[in-house]
Design goal:
By secondary structure, this protein is of the alpha+beta class. Helix content is 30%, strand content 22%. The protein is built from 24 helices and 34 strands. The strands form 5 sheets. The protein has a 15-stranded mixed beta sheet that branches. It has a 10-stranded mixed beta sheet with strand order 30-29-26-25-24-23-31-28-27-34, sandwiched between helices. This is Recessive suppressor of secretory defect. InterPro entries: hSac2 (IPR034753), Inositol_phosphatase (IPR022158), SAC_dom (IPR002013).
Amino acid sequence: MPGLARKVLVTAAVDGLLLHPLNPVPSKDGSRPPPLPLVKIKYGSNVSVSTVGRDHAPPATSESFEAYGVVGIITVFHYSYLITVTRRQQVANLFGRHPIYVVTEVALTPLTSRQEAADSIGKTALALKNRLQKEGSTSQSTSGDEETGGLGIDELPRDDAVESATEDDAITPPENTSSSSIAKDVISRRGSYGRFAQRWFSRSGWAAENKRQMGLTPASGTPPGQQNRASNKNVPTRFQIPDGADGSEAAIELLPKLLRTAQILFGSSRTFFFGYDVDVTRRLADGGLRGLGEGVEGEYFWNGHIMRRFREAGVEGVVLPLMQGFVGEREFTVDESPAQEDEGEKGGEESVEMRDLSPSEEKREGEGGGLGGKKGGTERKFVITVISRRSIKRAGLRYLRRGIDEQGWVANGVETEQILYEADRGDKGRVYSFAQVRGSFPVFFTQSPYSLKPTPVLQHSQEANFAALRKHFGRLGERYGRLEVVNLVEKHGVEAPIGEVYERGVERLNEELVKEGKEKIGFEWFDFHSVCRGMKFENVSVLLGILGGRLEELGSSVVVDGVVERRQKGVLRTNCMDCLDRTNVCQSSFGKFMLDLQLREEGIDMEKQKDQENSWFNGLWADNGDAIGKQYAGTGAMKGDYTRTRKRNYRGALTDAGLSLTRLFNGMFNDFFLQASIDFLLGNVTSLVFEEFEANMMTKDPAVSMQNMRQQAIELCQKRVIEDEAEEFIGGWAFLTPSTPDTIRSATFEEAVLLLTDSALYLCRFDWNLDKVSSFERVDLAHVTKIKFGTYITSTISPAQVDELRNVGLVIEYKPGLTDVTRVNTRSLSSMSDHPKPTNDDFASAALSGVAGFFSGKNVAAAAAAAVTTPTRKIALKALYSQTSAAVSGEGGAGKVKIGGEEEEDEDIARLTEIQQVVVIAAEIERLALLNQPREVKGEKEEGEGHLIEKGDIISVAEAKKNTGLLETLGHRVKKLVWA
């Protein structure tokens, strides 16, 4: 990315918003690169980026402001916003000539129209001017390493400011704001998810005129982009219905919350870092000093998705690659040959000095900052820089992102690099780089956010867990080489089972590696809480005693003048339960151990230095732990007092207790919408995530492919429950079904698997955590009497749940016979029926139970007579949504099915809408049921001429509203108040 602009001028033009790069970075030879092209962003619902030549920057006007870089463009349906950096602070100066900044503020500029952009840009420019004037008068008391401009967090209208807005009187935004009239309309006036918005408790929602003004209801009555969503392919003419909606209303209602979250996340959180001429997303040994090349990619590039339009247009020079995590730097001075003094002389002065490195440091030079005591030798100044990079893979918040995904990516994956170099020589001398990684257990598991110490719940089969673990360590091995695992969880208690699964997985993987002639993975299980009981965290030295030799073998990377002379041979992978507190204590100890080794290579023996506590080092690592803790758990790291001082006391314990309660509160209330926003900004989900969030105030894990899980469940059910090999398997699908059998209404619904063969259908209730069949019900197709499909409303608490075109299902009615079986998996050497055991006087119940029917000895005639009095049973099935927020095609609930004897592929079925899927499956069940039922020889109907399908509401909207209790409605609205 040669010529990356240090600043860009944001200007509103007649036909587009213009970005002009200012002050591009000089080349290494000092020459100034040619001017970057002027960038034009087209206004409107379909935002596009293009270049318009290499003209000089347009003159600054009231409709322009300077920004320190472009973060990207976020789009929610036809609303788009440009994010630019308006405030930054320098946190490091690598090698004395590569500044690294943290973003402290961003501006959001609407791209709907020129007028909207012009209003926003003008207000941003005014805010910038006012702030510079205000800060200019107090510059003597402020740090010199912070540069400002643009919008403060409080200057964007907050959604919680909307207290009693009506359709006719809007809330006027504050003076200094970047919101446009449309942004104002969305944020201030229509923000029905504001903290005290009265619309929360209104069933009617927006008026039609207000929806029209927002572009949600054009004259046709169908929102834009929703026409012709479904194609009626493969649907019989008698069952075709109108097209459905795309869920845009929920996303646009939550747009104010998303904009606010994006501004806080990228700006005031102070967690995103960048450099203009150094790539902070890559390790030193992997080209981090080569600058920002055009191929900036990887798992630490956080704004890659929202800057895609710029990259596609070939104007990457105006976009800053951002890394989330931590950057900290310290300068310290050591004596090569420290003088030997008596213990009591001068109170034991320190011979190691630490200084914060900042642009204002030179001003403080000589202000009493020299070394204390007698100098026994040559002083040398070193700089240590710690960079922690959070992965964009499986990114998110504690309890909402745990364990591993199918591709081997783990939650809270962090690479921490510790860089050491001599201050006077910079990168011309020997530069040491030591990297270590942390990450959640490479195991499928979850934990409840509603407990201070929740029990881990293991998920999925042993094979699924091992396959993911193998991918994870395979990727780590390719990147780092030799692997050493440090597992810090308890060997007893709630943490032990997951630690044992982890250990067994590594042992199995090592067996495979040995067979392949590869190096085994080292595994050290160190029970941190047991060894350090009584707050004796200094006992971590026991772990260092075990791993010290291995750390020396792994070594560090050494780079001289940009050339890698030696590479680190492997990496330490450390984890505790959250990979925060215990992990940070141990990683800081490993980092200190390697620092001593590196200085020893430079001829400095730290054991002879007076300052053995190295508070400058401990403080740096404590800051690192706090940063990662806040980003993952919402609070700073616990045990921070020990990391900083190497001492532990009751005050630290009380502080940790408070942090635990804060983490519990965040997990219960604050994390859900932030997690949805992170997934959306990273491109893991589409705008439909906000519709899903509105329905239950929760978020799903987009990295876990539900399509794959359902397909695997279908295959497993097929193997377990279809006993007769002569039965031809037709298809399998996942549906929602009432938890209570033989009913269409239930307090809860569960996802089950429906299998269809040429002679029977099977409803399999599945344990999705353990990948096991809990029970199944077999129905002979000859006994099916009716198939009803239509609207199936199970809840009315959100607009998505009352959409009659998406909430559909079918009910299969049948008369139980001898061949109909229900079995329950008891996890033992027996199975049981869901129904009471029959008596001799109740043969109908015997037929119903199935199991007894096989051994009852009753003849077929008796069975037929009993069938007359047998009550009809029902199987109710509600279709899963065919479109989900997961940014992957075909995430519906369909599987394979033979339609008219011809097999359709998964993708073809998945592209159907919910009603189309229901109709296709119902028609196939009807066809096979008629083939299995005896034809009437003397009657009017011949084989195949009858119809079992009936169209009608299963549960209508009106009926569902009558059955929705007041407590359920109020409960959901309270959740909105808290979560949204």
